[in-house]
Amino acid sequence: MSASASTFLIFSCFALIFATASATDHIVGANKGWNPGMNYTLWANNQTFVVGDLISFRYQKTQYNVFEVNQTGYDNCTTEGAIGNWSSGKDFIPLNKSQRYYFICGNGQCYNGMKVSVLVQALPPGPSPSASSNGTSSNSPTPMVLEKRFVGLRVLVITFASIWLTELGLFELLMK
Protein backbone atom coordinates (compact mmCIF):
# COMPACT_ATOMS: atom_id res chain seq x y z
CA MET A 1 0.00 0.00 0.00
CA SER A 2 1.42 3.39 -0.95
CA ALA A 3 2.14 6.05 1.64
CA SER A 4 -0.65 8.27 0.33
CA ALA A 5 -3.16 5.38 0.41
CA SER A 6 -2.20 4.52 3.99
CA THR A 7 -2.43 8.16 4.99
CA PHE A 8 -5.84 8.40 3.38
CA LEU A 9 -6.98 5.29 5.24
CA ILE A 10 -5.67 6.61 8.57
CA PHE A 11 -7.35 9.98 8.13
CA SER A 12 -10.58 8.37 6.96
CA CYS A 13 -10.66 6.29 10.14
CA PHE A 14 -9.91 9.42 12.17
CA ALA A 15 -12.76 11.22 10.41
CA LEU A 16 -15.20 8.44 11.27
CA ILE A 17 -14.08 8.46 14.89
CA PHE A 18 -14.45 12.24 14.97
CA ALA A 19 -17.94 12.00 13.50
CA THR A 20 -19.01 9.46 16.12
CA ALA A 21 -17.50 11.59 18.88
CA SER A 22 -20.05 14.34 18.26
CA ALA A 23 -22.91 12.04 19.38
CA THR A 24 -23.93 12.34 23.01
CA ASP A 25 -22.86 9.44 25.21
CA HIS A 26 -25.46 8.98 27.95
CA ILE A 27 -23.76 7.13 30.81
CA VAL A 28 -26.51 5.26 32.64
CA GLY A 29 -26.59 6.34 36.26
CA ALA A 30 -23.96 9.03 35.59
CA ASN A 31 -21.17 8.71 38.16
CA LYS A 32 -23.00 5.94 40.06
CA GLY A 33 -23.11 3.58 37.07
CA TRP A 34 -25.23 0.47 36.55
CA ASN A 35 -25.93 -0.87 40.04
CA PRO A 36 -28.87 -2.19 42.09
CA GLY A 37 -31.04 0.19 44.09
CA MET A 38 -30.85 3.12 41.64
CA ASN A 39 -33.78 5.04 40.17
CA TYR A 40 -32.97 4.78 36.48
CA THR A 41 -36.41 6.09 35.50
CA LEU A 42 -35.55 9.40 37.13
CA TRP A 43 -32.14 9.41 35.44
CA ALA A 44 -33.69 8.69 32.00
CA ASN A 45 -36.35 11.38 32.46
CA ASN A 46 -33.58 13.95 32.88
CA GLN A 47 -31.94 13.02 29.56
CA THR A 48 -32.78 13.88 25.96
CA PHE A 49 -32.01 11.01 23.61
CA VAL A 50 -31.84 11.55 19.84
CA VAL A 51 -31.03 9.21 16.99
CA GLY A 52 -27.26 8.80 16.73
CA ASP A 53 -26.59 9.07 20.46
CA LEU A 54 -25.03 6.32 22.53
CA ILE A 55 -26.17 4.84 25.81
CA SER A 56 -23.39 3.35 27.87
CA PHE A 57 -23.40 1.10 30.87
CA ARG A 58 -20.53 1.00 33.38
CA TYR A 59 -20.49 -1.82 35.91
CA GLN A 60 -18.52 -4.69 37.46
CA LYS A 61 -18.43 -7.21 34.62
CA THR A 62 -18.15 -10.14 37.03
CA GLN A 63 -21.42 -9.13 38.73
CA TYR A 64 -23.77 -7.56 36.19
CA ASN A 65 -24.66 -7.43 32.50
CA VAL A 66 -27.03 -5.63 30.13
CA PHE A 67 -29.80 -7.05 27.96
CA GLU A 68 -31.89 -5.13 25.47
CA VAL A 69 -35.40 -6.54 25.67
CA ASN A 70 -38.92 -5.69 24.53
CA GLN A 71 -41.50 -4.08 26.81
CA THR A 72 -42.73 -7.45 28.09
CA GLY A 73 -39.20 -8.47 29.04
CA TYR A 74 -38.73 -5.10 30.74
CA ASP A 75 -42.02 -5.30 32.65
CA ASN A 76 -41.40 -8.91 33.75
CA CYS A 77 -37.61 -8.77 34.18
CA THR A 78 -37.05 -11.58 31.71
CA THR A 79 -34.40 -11.94 29.00
CA GLU A 80 -36.45 -14.35 26.89
CA GLY A 81 -36.31 -13.14 23.28
CA ALA A 82 -33.62 -10.55 24.11
CA ILE A 83 -32.67 -8.23 21.26
CA GLY A 84 -29.06 -7.89 22.40
CA ASN A 85 -26.77 -8.52 25.37
CA TRP A 86 -23.49 -7.10 26.66
CA SER A 87 -21.15 -8.04 29.48
CA SER A 88 -17.91 -6.09 29.08
CA GLY A 89 -18.47 -3.77 32.04
CA LYS A 90 -18.15 -0.76 29.73
CA ASP A 91 -20.76 -1.17 27.01
CA PHE A 92 -21.51 1.47 24.36
CA ILE A 93 -24.82 0.88 22.58
CA PRO A 94 -25.80 3.03 19.60
CA LEU A 95 -29.33 4.39 19.58
CA ASN A 96 -29.93 4.27 15.82
CA LYS A 97 -33.72 4.35 15.63
CA SER A 98 -36.44 6.66 16.88
CA GLN A 99 -38.17 4.32 19.31
CA ARG A 100 -38.40 3.27 22.95
CA TYR A 101 -35.52 1.06 24.08
CA TYR A 102 -35.66 -1.25 27.11
CA PHE A 103 -32.58 -2.47 29.00
CA ILE A 104 -32.36 -4.76 32.01
CA CYS A 105 -29.73 -6.58 34.02
CA GLY A 106 -30.16 -10.25 33.21
CA ASN A 107 -28.81 -11.85 36.37
CA GLY A 108 -31.81 -11.14 38.60
CA GLN A 109 -30.86 -7.60 39.58
CA CYS A 110 -33.66 -6.23 37.36
CA TYR A 111 -35.91 -6.86 40.36
CA ASN A 112 -33.62 -4.57 42.39
CA GLY A 113 -34.05 -1.67 39.98
CA MET A 114 -31.44 -2.47 37.34
CA LYS A 115 -33.64 -1.62 34.38
CA VAL A 116 -34.00 1.48 32.27
CA SER A 117 -36.27 2.51 29.44
CA VAL A 118 -35.34 5.40 27.13
CA LEU A 119 -37.30 7.12 24.39
CA VAL A 120 -35.12 8.10 21.43
CA GLN A 121 -36.41 10.97 19.36
CA ALA A 122 -35.74 11.59 15.70
CA LEU A 123 -33.72 14.64 14.82
CA PRO A 124 -36.20 17.39 14.03
CA PRO A 125 -36.30 18.51 10.40
CA GLY A 126 -34.18 21.52 9.56
CA PRO A 127 -35.70 24.91 8.96
CA SER A 128 -37.26 25.40 5.55
CA PRO A 129 -35.22 27.51 3.12
CA SER A 130 -37.70 30.38 3.37
CA ALA A 131 -37.65 30.32 7.19
CA SER A 132 -33.86 30.26 7.36
CA SER A 133 -33.50 33.09 4.86
CA ASN A 134 -35.67 35.51 6.80
CA GLY A 135 -34.46 34.33 10.24
CA THR A 136 -37.97 34.12 11.71
CA SER A 137 -38.31 30.40 12.25
CA SER A 138 -39.95 29.76 15.60
CA ASN A 139 -39.15 26.03 15.62
CA SER A 140 -35.53 26.01 14.57
CA PRO A 141 -33.43 23.14 15.92
CA THR A 142 -31.29 23.60 18.98
CA PRO A 143 -27.53 24.14 18.50
CA MET A 144 -26.87 20.52 19.58
CA VAL A 145 -29.14 19.21 16.83
CA LEU A 146 -27.54 21.49 14.26
CA GLU A 147 -24.11 20.26 15.35
CA LYS A 148 -25.16 16.66 14.73
CA ARG A 149 -26.37 17.57 11.26
CA PHE A 150 -22.95 18.83 10.24
CA VAL A 151 -21.16 15.60 11.15
CA GLY A 152 -21.18 14.46 7.51
CA LEU A 153 -19.74 17.78 6.43
CA ARG A 154 -16.97 17.45 9.03
CA VAL A 155 -16.09 13.99 7.74
CA LEU A 156 -15.91 15.32 4.20
CA VAL A 157 -13.74 18.29 5.17
CA ILE A 158 -11.34 16.14 7.20
CA THR A 159 -11.08 13.58 4.41
CA PHE A 160 -10.30 16.19 1.77
CA ALA A 161 -7.87 17.96 4.11
CA SER A 162 -6.00 14.69 4.67
CA ILE A 163 -5.76 14.08 0.92
CA TRP A 164 -4.58 17.62 0.33
CA LEU A 165 -1.98 17.46 3.11
CA THR A 166 -0.73 14.13 1.80
CA GLU A 167 -0.42 15.40 -1.77
CA LEU A 168 1.54 18.44 -0.58
CA GLY A 169 3.79 16.24 1.54
CA LEU A 170 2.78 18.16 4.65
CA PHE A 171 1.25 15.19 6.42
CA GLU A 172 4.67 13.59 6.97
CA LEU A 173 5.93 16.88 8.45
CA LEU A 174 2.94 17.08 10.81
CA MET A 175 3.40 13.49 11.97
CA LYS A 176 7.08 13.94 12.92
TrEMBL record:
Keyword vocabulary terms for this entry: Disulfide bond, Glycoprotein, Membrane, Signal, Transmembrane, Transmembrane helix
- The Phytocyanin domain is annotated at 24-122
Q: What top-level branch of life does the organism fall under?
A: Eukaryota
Q: Which GO terms of the molecular function aspect are on file?
A: electron transfer activity
Q: Where are the transmembrane segments?
A: 151-174
Q: Which InterPro entries match?
A: Cupredoxin (IPR008972), Phytocyanin-like (IPR039391), Phytocyanin_dom (IPR003245)
In the UniProt record, the signal sequence range is 1-23
GO CC terms? plasma membrane
Q: Name one Pfam family in it.
A: Cu_bind_like
| CDD domains in UniProt | Phytocyanin_like_1
Q: What does this protein do?
A: May act as a carbohydrate transporter.
Q: Which family does it belong to?
A: Belongs to the early nodulin-like (ENODL) family.
Protein known as:
Phytocyanin domain-containing protein
Q: Which organism is it from?
A: Rubroshorea leprosula
